[in-house]
Specification:
Layout (H helix, E strand, L loop, with lengths): L8 E2 L12 H10 L4 E4 L7 H11 L2 E12 L2 E9 L2 H16 L5 H8 L3 E5 L3 H6 L3 H14 L2 E6 L4 H17 L3 E3 L2 E2 L7 H11 L15 H7 L6 H9 L24 H17 L7 H17 L3 H15 L16 H5 L30 E4 L3 H12 L4 E9 L2 H11 L4 H12 L8 H13 L3 E13 L10 E3 L5 E6 H7 L2 E8 H13 L13 H8 L12 H10 L4 H10 L8 H8 L12 H4 L9 H12 L3 H12 L3 H17 L4 H14 L6 H20 L1 H11 L4 H13 L3 E3 L11 E2 L3 E3 L10 H11 L7 H8 L5 H9 L10 H5 L26 H12 L9 H9 L11 E15 L5 E8 L4 E6 L1 H7 L7 E9 L2 E9 L3
Parallel strand pairs: 1-8, 2-3, 5-6, 6-7, 9-14, 10-13, 15-17, 20-22
Antiparallel strand pairs: 3-4, 4-5, 10-11, 11-14, 12-13, 16-17, 18-19, 18-21, 19-20, 21-22
Helix pairs in contact: 1-2, 6-7, 11-12, 11-13, 13-15, 16-17, 16-18, 20-31, 21-30, 23-30, 26-27, 28-29, 30-31, 31-32
């Protein structure tokens, strides 16, 4: 009779840093090596869903287990715990949760769970290996466990000489106590030659790990039988224990929590009433509206939502959005396809009118495509957690959880980890990485080859868990009945499964996104006390479009990248639709059409495909920019319903040859039935197919264009406040702060250095300037600044010495020096040299006892020293930008603010560094670093100009004429200046 044999102690890649076996490979290898079933025994259940799906795919029976360490009589014992049916799997899932949320798990805490499961104590663990000859001790332990656990067994491994000896002792104890033996060969890698990689992996986790000699490879079924040939009947017994194992986990259906309506009104009626009331309020603000269009659309959407069973979903989202809005938490205008829903607009979930912007509901919810709705919400990043807490508290902590993500090994990034384990020094490792990147690796360099080989075998393995940036799962059921959980951020529970697993199981994911831009808008509104609702800001404000046309988009959502600024410069947006198109076009693929779009936008003309679809393509000048256009073409030309058109869009986008031919045939057939010409139908289908990859979700583009415009409006009308809030949001990012400071100064406002008398932890708008925060100074953390402000609140600092006395215990000497260098203590009226001569906080205060005490004063340090100190203190120069001579010269030549964004630029430059090189023609040229006062630039001087101006480079100050190119600035002319 054929033996039914499988593995019972298999570690997968999700036993992070403890196995190199990736799931898909694990199943294919089991199939290839003759096994009848396969087990999952990680120290977590991250792989639960994927494991069961692969079991279906490969038609191999699966057993779900858990490797769990328990505190048993003040010692740590490993137990392998298995579930054989749905009831046991639910218990095992809860046990996996207890393991992850407990700091230490005691045997007594989980005995009730263990009684319901198959429990195996494996011989391959430290305690057994250290005490296997102590028969009395182990007999007493095993007897205790057998008496309390119904299905308790001893696991034996014969994969080394030591373990084989252990098995001999354990068999004798098992016979005496009548405890069954199970084969628990531990498996952590595919083949014996993978052992080195496995040891490297273990050392990455724990540098003190000592290599062992046990073979943890997946041997063949026949070799496994040979390995246990002395344990007669062990596989027959294994079969008896697990023969009825079966799960229906993948067939579970999960529901949303029920929204608690007033007076227990059914969800359908309640949603309908709210939506109709919301529509009435929205219509009151819309001029020249066709009410019937809105009402018909609302009825249609409500019917679809009800048929798909999502009434409670919309009510739940409506409820927490309402909570946010009534608790001073700004909500974004919308994102993604949800902006195409009139119901969402009427409920206040979105602020985009889908009728006005011609957005399609079927792009969001499609009755012919039963997928989960996807309403993603943006909140200020500093208030997002308040909304999540509200949802958690309303529906219960085990009904609302965050989601795990996994960081995986990448070949290049793991090389240094592996090199450390292989004891290679940094310079050697760097040399290998450089050679690899240049494809110049020496094939005889076996050390390097081995390093890269190990890195490749680790590639793709999970390294550690993280938390999904935005996703939250909501469920009617207690989630720990079905989903293994662990500790998440902010006292929340977190699913051990990742987002794709949960969505495939049918759980509903809602993304609560934290957006810094919303926090900026929120703060501007509060500081300026703006009465106009954000959604009521006019979308045709001329000044705002001047800001955009002038490419003053620094700090504006979606519009501040270098590439985007170049497109804006060419497009010169004049309408809100221009911004919508910008966001849709500025992506890989559609970028190829940007120039032709802009040419047509400015009257350059364009060709349309066919008059029958002119109405759809005219707004985008013959280019399919939006996915919704594909849907409308199919509807208008070929008679598709919008639901069918959405399926067509999705099918074409997959680029599968079989699907494309099928869709093409169907499109032409429907078009002919709709009275269209076959040749025209083929032409239009080919055009759709060409653009299917490029089309963008118009709903998303409109929603984000609205947010971008709102920020541009606020920047235009509240520039100082906008920039002070923007600067505060990036205080720790020196490069961004420096760039934003330049923009403030370009508008003739100054940014002042920190001042101990008035500065706080944020940039503050003053009448004609912006005051920098103490938090800008390197080394002063949030807590230190907070303590300084608390001390200052007790009374102003009188002078330098009194300040030092009050700062004892708050600042150290390094902090004090940083404050001096940053200019924050200049208001005490002393030179930096004077203050720097007295920075010992432990030797201050005695002057209070001397009537005639007077601080010894020193003359100020040289400008260049002060400038270097300031740069050290805050990362760039804020106050010490130009010396007196530089200031005089820039004023004299009218070059205080040279515009380096233009193709041609003229500036006063101070030569910092000159590097001369020879060209291929043996001519001299050079690269020069210039201090231009408010920034430093590098410029190239080619041979002709070099010969003309090389002698001038010895001058301290020069008048430089340069042009910009893709490779930087090129010097055209240099003039000597009169100082």
């Amino acid at each position: 009779m054929k033996k039914v044999i499988g593995t019972l102690y298999t570690k997968t890649e999700y036993s992070m840093l403890n196995s190199t076996l990736q799931l898909e490979a694990l199943f294919s290898l089991h199939k290839e090596r003759g096994y009848d079933f396969i087990s999952l025994v990680d120290d977590n259940l991250h792989a639960l869903y994927k494991f069961l799906k692969l079991s279906e795919k490969y038609q191999i029976k699966s057993i779900i287990g858990l490797d769990i360490k328990l505190n048993f009589r003040e010692m740590n014992l490993n137990f392998l715990v298995y579930a054989r049916n749905d009831k046991e799997l639910k218990i095992l899932t809860k046990l996996a949760t207890k393991k992850e949320v407990s700091d230490e798990l005691n045997f007594a805490d989980v005995i009730s769970d263990l009684k319901e499961l198959v429990v195996v104590i494996p011989s391959f663990q430290s305690y057994i290996l250290n005490n296997y000859a102590n028969k009395e001790l182990l007999t007493e332990i095993f007897k205790y466990l057998k008496e309390r656990i119904k299905s308790f067994y001893i696991g034996v491994s014969n994969q080394s000489e030591l373990l084989t000896n252990v098995t001999t002792y354990l068999k004798e104890i098992a016979r005496e106590l009548e405890i069954g033996l199970l084969p628990t060969r531990k498996i952590s890698y595919a083949n014996k030659e993978d052992q080195k990689t496995y040891h490297v992996l273990r050392k990455i986790e724990n540098n003190l790990y000592e290599e062992s000699y046990e073979d943890l490879s997946l041997i063949t079924k026949q070799d496994l039988i040979k390995e246990y040939k002395k344990e007669h009947g062990i596989f027959d017994f294994q079969y008896e224990v697990f023969k009825n194992t079966k799960y229906t986990y993948l067939n579970n259906k999960f529901e949303l929590p029920k929204y608690p309506t007033k007076d227990n009104v059914d969800a359908k009626s309640y949603l309908e009433a709210l939506a109709k009331l919301g529509l009435k309020k929205r219509l009151e603000k819309i001029e020249h509206k066709n009410e019937k269009v809105y009402q018909d659309r609302l009825v249609h959407e409500l019917n679809v939502i009800d048929q798909m069973g999502y009434n409670d979903y919309f009510l739940i989202v409506y409820d927490f959005v309402k909570f946010a809005k009534t608790n001073d938490i700004l909500v974004g205008p919308g994102r993604g396809s949800a902006a195409g829903s009139l119901v969402a607009y009427c409920l206040g979930i979105t602020e985009v009118d889908p009728i006005q912007y011609d957005l399609l509901f079927e792009r969001f919810l499609n009755i012919d495509r039963r997928t989960m709705p996807d309403i993603d919400l943006d909140f200020p990043d500093n208030k997002r957690d308040l909304v999540i807490d509200y949802v958690k508290n309303k529906y219960g902590e085990k009904h609302v959880v965050t989601i795990s993500t996994f960081t995986t090994f990448a070949e290049k990034s793991s090389i240094r980890d592996i090199a450390r384990i292989l004891k290679l020094d940094n310079s050697r490792t760097t040399a290998i990485i450089n050679a690899m990147q240049k494809n110049k690796l020496d094939e005889t360099d076996y050390e390097a080859i081995e390093l890269i080989s190990v890195a490749k075998t680790l590639e793709g393995l999970p390294r550690q868990t993280g938390t999904h940036a935005a996703g939250i799962i909501l469920s009617k059921e207690n989630l720990d009945d079905f989903v293994p959980l662990q500790k998440g951020p902010h006292d929340m529970l977190q699913s051990q499964l990742e987002a794709s697993d949960l969505e495939s199981l049918g759980f509903l994911k809602i993304d609560f996104l934290g957006l810094r831009n919303l926090a900026i808008i929120d703060e501007i509104y509060k500081l300026e006390k703006i009465d106009t609702k954000l959604s009521d800001i006019p979308l045709d404000d001329k000044k705002t479009f001047e800001t955009l046309k002038n490419v003053e988009t620094t700090g504006i959502f979606q519009l501040e990248s270098y590439g985007m600024k170049n497109v804006i410069r060419k497009l010169k947006p004049e309408t809100f639709e221009d911004i919508v198109a910008l966001l849709a076009l500025f992506r890989p693929g559609p970028m190829d059409f940007i120039d032709s779009y802009i040419k047509s936008r400015h009257g350059g003309g364009f060709e349309l495909v066919d008059p029958s679809i002119d109405e759809v393509l005219k707004p985008t000048f013959g280019i399919i920019v939006y996915q919704e256009q594909i849907m409308k073409i199919a509807q208008m030309f070929a008679g598709y319903s919008l639901s069918q058109a959405d399926l067509l869009r999705r099918g074409i986008a997959k680029k599968d040859k079989e699907i494309l031919e099928k869709e093409k045939s169907n499109f032409v057939k429907k078009a002919i039935e709709n009275g269209r010409d076959e040749k025209v139908a083929l032409k239009i289908y080919d055009y759709i197919e060409r653009f299917a990859d490029y089309g963008f979700n118009r709903s998303h583009s409109v929603a984000y264009a609205l947010l971008a415009y709102q920020m541009a409006y606020l920047k235009t009308h509240y520039f100082q406040t906008f920039m002070s809030v923007l600067l505060s949001s990036v205080t720790s990012n020196t490069e961004l702060v420096e760039n934003y400071v330049k923009e403030v100064r370009s508008k003739k406002y100054d940014v002042l250095k920190p001042d101990i008398r008035y500065s706080t932890d944020k940039f503050i708008k003053t009448k004609y300037s912006i005051l920098s925060p103490l938090l800008l100074i390197k080394g002063l953390g949030v807590n230190t600044v907070e303590k300084i402000l608390e001390e200052r609140a007790k009374g102003p600092f009188k002078d330098y010495n009194e300040f030092k006395v009050r700062m004892k215990g708050i600042l150290n000497e390094k902090n004090l020096i940083s404050l001096i260098h940053a200019g924050a203590l200049d208001s005490f009226g002393l030179t930096h040299a004077t203050m720097l001569a007295s920075t010992n906080l432990n030797q201050t205060g005695f002057e209070n006892f001397l009537d005639d005490y007077k601080e010894k004063e020193f003359s100020e340090l040289d400008f260049e020293i002060l400038k270097a100190h300031e740069k050290e203190a805050i990362g760039f120069n804020l106050y010490y930008v130009m010396d007196l001579t530089f200031k005089t010269l820039t004023e004299k030549y009218g070059l205080e603010n040279p515009d380096f964004t233009k193709n041609q630029v003229k500036f006063i430059g101070k030569v910092l560094k000159v590097k001369t090189i020879k060209t291929k023609q043996n001519a001299n040229m050079c690269f020069v670093d210039f201090d231009c006062g408010k920034e430093e630039i590098s410029a190239t001087i080619f041979p002709k100009e070099y010969n003309d101006y090389v002698k001038l480079l010895d001058e301290k100050y020069l008048l430089v004429y340069a042009s910009s190119s893709e490779k930087g600035y090129i010097v055209n002319k240099i003039e000597k200046v009169k100082v």
